[in-house]
Fold Putative membrane protein.
Amino acid sequence: MFYDHHFIGMHWIWWLIMIAIILLVVFDIIPYRPRTEPKEDALDILKKRFARGEIEREEFEERKQILKQNK
């Protein structure tokens, strides 16, 4: 009955292998949840600016105090 269409022969194994490969490729490319980087808060940005030398110590301390007051 189904022998002419290769449903019972070995050809169904190849279909399963192909479907498995397709599923692996699709789910490897499409993430389950969006990948987001943790957000930096203002104090982290301020510390980085101080470390790079963009602001002086006095300005760093002043802005740090302002940030602590606003919390």
